[in-house]
Automatic annotation (TrEMBL), chain B:
Residue intervals of the 4Fe-4S ferredoxin-type domain: 35-65
Organism field: Hydrogenobacter sp
Protein name: Heterodisulfide reductase subunit C
PROSITE patterns: 4FE4S_FER_1 (PS00198), 4FE4S_FER_2 (PS51379)
SUPFAM superfamilies to which the protein is assigned, alphabetical: alpha-helical ferredoxin (SSF46548)
Keywords per UniProt: 4Fe-4S, Iron, Iron-sulfur, Metal-binding, Oxidoreductase
Molecular function via GO: 4 iron, 4 sulfur cluster binding; metal ion binding; oxidoreductase activity
Amino acid sequence: MAHAHGFGHNSPGGLLRYPEKPPFPLKEYSAHYDHIFEMMEELEAKGEILIHRITEEHQPVEVFTRTGRIKLIPTNKLWHHKSCGQCGNIPGYPASIFWFMNKFGLDYLNEPHQTSCTAWNYHGSGTSNPVALAAVWLRNMHQAWKTGYYPLIHCGTSFGSYKETREQLIMNKELRDAVKPILRKLGRLVDIGDGKERIVIPQEVVHYSEWVHAMRYKIKELYEKEGKAKGIDVSNVRVAIHNACHTYKMIADDYPYDPEVFNGQRPAASTAVVKALGAQVVDYSTWFDCCGFGFRHILTEREFTRSFAIQRKLKVIYEEVKADLIVTHDTGCTTTFEKNQWIGKAHGMYYPVAVMSDVMFAALACGAHPFKVVQLYWNCSDYERLLEKMGISNWRELRKEWEDTVKYIAELEKAGKYDELMEFFKEYDLYEPYSRTSTGKPKASATANMPLFKS
Amino acid sequence: MDGHPYGYNLPISEKTKAVPWEEKVRIVEEVKSDFRFKEYIFGCLNCGVCTASCPSNRFFDYSPREIVQRFLEEDVEVLYDMMHEYIWACSQCFTCWIRCPFVNNPGGLVAIMREVAVRNAFEATKDLLKPYGRVLLKVMTTGNQLSADMLQPDFFPDWGPKMADNMENLRAKRLAIPFDVGKSVKTAWEVSLETAIEMYTIWRETGIFEMLEKLDPNLYNVIMDIVEENEERYEELYEEEE
Ligand code: SF4
Ligand code: SF4
């Protein structure tokens, strides 16, 4: 490997690597967490695990973690591990990710043979346990490995939980021993011909925001080429960054830091792409605070979520830095900030500011349709002024275009004209030819018998 | 004893006082025997950095420092009492974890305590999680915690008038996403049946169904009806294939 003599201890198998010199001032030089990569190599040699490796076909990009470790971010041939909160509540979030995948002509797999991580539920209600969480994770990871595509985790909580689960698995034989019989039942252990049953563990747990970070200069190129051609200009947009707790506070030593972003003293993802696009990153005093989501709280302890979001974040961002936009990189924070603004009017605490994730803002900048792709109609924040400021002044027409499409689809469906609908989608859908929806047709959907949610 | 000389501001509840000492010890020991416990607590300076940066501390009578201190003092009475309502204030943000000079993880301790509280079906926990039942139903049967149809505007009047607009023609709106995402209204995506069947095996093998049965028998029955129906459907499809 290129950096044979890094400042830290490099592992014999090459999974743990450091650059020649620390890339930025470091808090500590020998992070406890980093040793798990060496331990993974040892466990693989013993036949306990099989490491799903990042190879050339994944077109990896090197980034640094908080400890200065080199983390490989795969950028191609990705297995999309979707987020239930994003697909359910922020549809423009995954749609923007897939829009970029298609724009860049990348190979990816988007299949139904996956569950959520179920960690939101765990953090909200305690109704799970580490063995169950590990089994769910490993089942999903085995599925990705089986397809040959590398897992890209959309949700910040899934990412944080998976990082923690991996550390627990590597450090604790008792957890590995507890989860193996379950995986055996599921046919999710791998025998490479030596009679040993291996658990599949990915080389790196990778969040989509790390992918955006790794792709930021390509995104910038697309903005220069296509966004600017449409009259879009983000140079005057004032952006407050909110980093998600589960990406950088959970297993803090496994998330990108970069000399270009506060000299490596703050998480780099999201800030770096906003800077690459040439927008203005504005700093505010409560940047380190969480959003107030609280997992359980957003659903059943709402006054807390609302109070925290308004008083500790929205008010501060509005008064201190007058941001046009809060850029997030996770599911819960995005929802918390965009949904809890209007209610502030009741107490004279209305601090309007647009809210969206890094990838949604980047897609807008690169010329994606604000409603068809970025799905902003779903967003309860004050995004219209942002669109104007970005130079997307035809947003009303674009919205009308979207609404007409929805109406057309609704009418065809109501009239039972399914053939016409299918014809329409053939032209309309953007996911061909790059995305393959699945490795195999599902036998059926688990959703079929679910009752519709009634209030 | 009312309150605690070192700062646990809440009076020890009558219910806690009435519980036999051995039972309280058993519960606290269950927390301490979790394999994560030794990875979440190393010592404590009593510096309060965790509490100072804790979001829940700002709005609730709740302090992560207090939890860590009680464990180090082996204060069974207070710990047992905390496990009923106190710990549910935590937002699980793990700000305490990244900031603690000892690398303690008070949020992680809370996760273990909650799990033990659920497993032992504490009454307070049952009440607290009642409104959460719909989420549990969804995640246990489909593997998705959230879906578009859960965001009924009358659940969330505080989210403003835009929410009501969003729900109009919901299905058509989802079909109009030009990618294969968010198309399903009842789940976040169409989870394949075979995947859900694997997940049910995980729930069975790891005691999650059992845990739910103790927590909320009615909810458990509804969940099991769906699970069994899906398992039958799967069997039929499998037989057809053969
Ligand atoms: S994880 Fe819980 S205890 Fe720790 S800072 Fe967050 S809310 Fe406070
Ligand atoms: S930050 Fe750590 S050392 Fe300080 S009071 Fe909290 S748990 Fe104790």
